[in-house]
Amino acid sequence: MRGSSIIRPGYFSVRGTADQMRPVYDRYNEQIIHNRLPINFVFIGESITQFWDVQTYFGGRKNTIVNRGISGDMTFFMLKRFPADVLQLKPKYVHIMGGTNNTWRMGAFDPQERKSPNQIYFETVSDIGTMVREAKKYGIIPIIGSNLPTGKGIPCFESQPLLYCRDTSTDLRNELLFQINHGTRQLAVYETAIYVDYHSYMTDRDGRTLRPELADDGLHPNVLGYNIMAEVLYKTLAAAGVEIGTL
Questions:
Q1: pLDDT at 96 (0 to 100)
Q2: Residues 6+ apart with CB under 8 A from 199
Q3: In degrees to the nearest 10, what's the CA dihedral of 199, 201, 207, 213?
Q4: Is the residue at 149 inside a domain?
């Protein structure tokens, strides 16, 4: 297959964080397709996905896992790159996890970027629903991962200057993430997708806030957090009759 046959979504915006990894992932995708490498799982998502070394946890000679997480990504950009980073790779399964970055728009500095919790909820669930249906259309089994809770003391990130400091609305954000997870769980039932509930295993006593020992910055899991996620994913898939590898 020639390079010209590869799907390349191009750049979305001068501010689109999805653009940061586009040249890298286009080259990776081309190598996979050109060499006809069979893919078992593709993980698509945000920084929590990108920083999860899923190949280390689950990979092996007979289990090729591709990570297409992008730090700072949002679900509507994930949807735009879904044909390139998932569908054309023809994996057996796709793990979809997103929505946390969508919630930052509650406090966007630019009023045109700002959205209400209801708008963010419906946008996120709709985007994930479209990805699930597209995967099924191509014979790919969808796995929906819940969003994680967030913790206290989340730093501001200079790479996203349009946003206020993220630590100003922890409770509101965590409640919205909880509701989004409820919506995607219902979506999974309706679409007969596999749902993975990471959230319940990573919250503090209030059922909403991230346990402080599981992330060094209140947002991205450390090794303790990823160990929990790996175990939850492994057991959930095993219960559904899906083998992802050994822990």
A1: 98
A2: 146, 147, 148, 149, 177, 178, 181
A3: -100
A4: yes
What is the DSSP secondary structure assignment for residue 60, as one 8-state letter?
A: B
Query: The tokens 């054309």 sit on which residue?
Result: 88
For residue 182, give its domain range.
3-239
**Domain of 155: which CATH number?**
3.40.50.1110
> What is the model's pTM?
0.90
Position 15 scores a pLDDT of 58
Q: Per residue in 186-197, pLDDT tens? A: 999 999 999 999
Query: What integer is the mean pLDDT of 202-210?
Result: 95
State the alpha helices, DSSP H only, in 45-169: 47-50, 54-58, 75-85, 117-137
Residue with tokens 């249906």: 133
**In angstroms, how far apart are the furthest CA atoms of the chain?**
54
Residue 15 maps to a domain: yes
- Tally of domains in the chain: 1
pLDDT in tens, 71-103: 999 999 999 999 999 999 999 999 999 999 999
- Asked whether residue 247 is assigned to any structural domain, the reply reads no
Distance in angstroms (rounded) separating the CA atoms of residues 13 and 16 = 5
Residue 244 counted as domain residue:
no
